[in-house]
Design brief:
The complex is a heterodimer of chains A (143) and B (169). Chain A contains three helices and eight strands; from the N terminus they run ααββββαββββ. Chain A is α+β, with helices and mostly antiparallel strands and 143 residues long. Chain A has a single domain (9-140), classed as Thiol Ester Dehydrase, Chain A. In chain A, the strands form two sheets. A six-stranded antiparallel β-sheet of chain A has the order 1-2-6-7-8-5. Chain A has a two-stranded antiparallel sheet with strand order 3-4. With 169 residues, chain B is of the alpha+beta class. Chain B has a single domain, classed as Roll (Thiol Ester Dehydrase, Chain A). Helices cover 30% and strands 31% of the residues of chain B. In chain B, the strands form two sheets. Chain B has a six-stranded antiparallel β-sheet with strand order 1-2-6-7-8-5. In chain B, strands 3-4 form a two-stranded antiparallel ribbon. In chain B, strand 7 (139-147) and strand 8 (156-163) form a beta hairpin. Classes of the chains: A alpha+beta (143), B alpha+beta (169). At the A-B interface, helix 2, strand 3, helix 3 and strand 5 of A face helix 2, strand 3, helix 3 and strand 5 of B. Strand 5 (76-89) of chain A pairs antiparallel with strand 5 (109-117) of chain B.
Chain lengths: 143, 169
């Protein structure tokens, strides 16, 4: 299976209003995998005493990343809709840290795609900040 | 036998509104999304006024799933904090004479959060309410629902677990 034409990552993110508003950065996409960055921003803080990001902000970028991974899967045609998404918060992100999320669409049936994802704050000596798993409705054609 | 006279209504309202305001307004991300809370007694309803930058897919158009997730998570967290503060607020342990000086305990920390996307979010205002289904010393379970036009047709629901802050932290 040949990979798709490279997506203009910057344009793709700007076409999605909320992703543009949060300044999400699509770093890599293709073959069911996606990497999206969320640069630190004071507006996304959940606890101003510590400068730690709100869980909802991490959810937003994880949700986007999972959707992007599904859409880039070679078997998936057309639009996707999230059925469910579960996020586990393993630890607090380091104060003022940028977040990078990666998602992998690891299985696709005719109508459902399965995804897992993780979010990291750059400290590779520690586990991810959050892990997630989700399912999406799709219409898929087997390659 | 004498009974204590009930407090004047404006004293009760002022105290509860001051604590709710302190609870919500210090969270930058809640301000970023534009979420506010309405109160009836102890019942809270979160309101997310529609904005163009809440759109995820402009072709449908639909609310971004992350915005829906954030609305449910903020509603769950604030409702849980609110219910855990209720007794201290009503008994006067929390001093509310100066609203800028209200000293609140840390917010509960999300352990995990699961969202069911029941139907796509329309480009209009959304509302959410949460129910604390278990409130323990160490952790709590919170269920929430979000709706737009009809409250009996939620467009998303969630279930989350939260680690409770320790008092002396």
């Amino acid at each position: 299976m040949e990979s798709r034409a490279p997506v203009n990552a910057e344009q793709f993110m700007k076409a999605l209003p909320h992703c543009g508003a949060m300044n999400m950065q699509l770093q890599q996409i293709g073959k069911g995998q996606a990497t999206i960055g969320l640069p630190y921003d004071d507006r996304f803080v959940g606890d101003p005493d510590t400068g730690v990001l709100h869980g909802g902000a991490i959810s937003a970028v994880v949700d986007t990343c999972c959707g992007a991974a599904v859409m880039s899967h070679p078997s998936v045609k057309g639009a996707t809709a999230t059925i469910d998404l579960r996020i586990e918060y393993l630890r607090s992100a380091a104060p003022r840290a940028d977040i990078v999320t990666t998602a992998e669409c690891y299985h696709v049936t005719r109508s459902v795609a399965f995804v897992r994802a993780s979010a990291h704050d750059g400290d590779t000596s520690k586990p991810p900040v959050a892990t997630a798993s989700g399912t999406f409705m799709v219409s898929a054609v087997k390659p | 036998m004498s009974r204590r006279r009930p407090e004047p209504v404006q004293v009760v309202k002022q105290r509860r509104d001051a604590v709710l305001k302190a609870l919500v307004e210090h969270i930058p991300y809640v301000r970023f999304l534009g979420i506010s809370f309405e109160r009836r007694g102890d019942e809270l309803t979160a309101i997310l006024p529609f904005r163009e930058d809440h759109i995820g897919n402009p072709l449908l158009p639909a609310l971004h799933g992350g915005v829906t997730a954030a609305l449910l998570e903020v509603t769950s967290n604030v409702s849980l904090s609110w219910s855990s503060l209720w007794d201290d607020m009503e008994s006067g342990v929390i001093n509310v004479t100066d609203p800028a000086e209200i000293d609140l305990p840390r917010m509960p920390k999300t352990i995990d959060f699961t969202i069911d996307y029941l139907r796509s979010g329309l480009p209009r205002d959304a509302y959410a309410r949460a129910v604390v289904t278990r409130s323990g010393r160490r952790y709590a379970s919170v269920r929430a629902e979000a709706w737009q036009d009809r409250s009996d047709r939620p467009f998303a629901q969630s279930n989350g677990h939260f680690l409770m802050p320790t008092r002396d932290e």
